[in-house]
Structures are given as C-alpha cells and as structure tokens.
C-alpha cells in the first residue's frame, strides 16, 4: 500500500463519517406514561407531555489582556451553553368542581417552548507582582494576589399558562 493510497482511503473514511453525522435537535419530545397508575389505583391520572432539552455547548470565550495585568482575565474561560426548553403540557381531570358530577372539568398547565442561554463561571487570578517598575530599576513591585470567580448567567423567558375548563 502506498502513502497516496493510504491518504485516499483516510479521506474517503472521513468524508463518509462527515456525511453520516446526524442533525442536532433542539429538544427531544417525551410523553410520560402514567397509564399503569390509572389501572392499578383506579384513579384518573394527569397526562404529561414535555420535551427534554439538548444542550449545545458553544466556543469558550477567549481571555482578554488588560493593560497593567500580567495574566489574562478571566484565566478560566467562560463557556456559553445554549438550549431550547420544549413545550410542556400537563392536563388533569378535576371532578366535582361545584360539588356536582355535571361540573366535571379539566385543569391544564402549559409552558410554551422558550430559548435558554447559560454561561459558566470563569476564574480570575491576579499575579502577586506588578508590571516592571521603571523607578525601581525595572524590578516589579509586590501586590496582594487576587482570586475570584465571575458570576454565572442564566438568560431566558420561561412562562406558564394555567387553565380550567
């Protein structure tokens, strides 16, 4: 086998693997089976339909250098995570609303799909030395070292609708 043949076989395998990559879904729909509870206990059970979010990890943010600092900030980069919270619907029978069987109804709780963005915390570390000091013959001065975490973020607009009919 020649080197050219090996490279051609490798490229063919990589192209086939790239073509076989599945599409990424925002969320996976899930129905919660509660029928066994109904048959076992003999009571009407709620119906639950929701979606499990599939988080998509973004590229870490690059640390930034600030004038006067020896180390970049944040030293541990912040990673954004994007996901779609799927639609959730919970319905449940509500018997005898007004004390009579003729007033049976159904309650529902619906949460529409919403987009959610999170950012992990980053670590900030300060060096115990300053930049070289020209008035001190180029020797850096000592400073108090600093250590901290940046605040994690959670951005989204979840909502819910409660209904009775």
Description:
The protein has 165 residues and is mainly beta. Helix content is 15%, strand content 39%. The protein is built from 2 helices and 13 strands. The termini are far apart.
Average the pLDDT over all residues and give the rounded result. 78
Helicity, as a percent range: 10-25%
**What pattern of helices and strands is seen along the backbone?**
HEHEEEEEEEEEEEE
Unreliable stretches (pLDDT < 50, length at least 5) are 17-23
Q: How much of the polypeptide forms β-strand, as a percent range?
A: 35-45%
Gap between N and C termini, in Å?
74 Å
Number of helices in the DSSP assignment: 2
Major sheet description = 5 strands, antiparallel
The secondary structure category is mainly beta
**Backbone shape:** elongated
The overall strand count is 13
Give the neighbour order of strands across the main sheet.
Answer: 1-2-5-6-13
Radius of gyration: 29 Å
Q: TL;DR?
A:
The protein is mainly beta.
Keywords:
mainly beta; four-stranded antiparallel sheet; 2 helices; 39% strand
Q: SSE layout and pairings?
A:
Blueprint: H1 3-19, E1 27-32, H2 35-41, E2 47-53, E3 56-57, E4 80-85, E5 88-94, E6 105-111, E7 114-119, E8 123-125, E9 129-133, E10 139-142, E11 147-149, E12 153-156, E13 161-164
Antiparallel strand pairs: 1-2, 2-5, 3-4, 4-7, 5-6, 6-13, 7-12, 8-11, 9-10
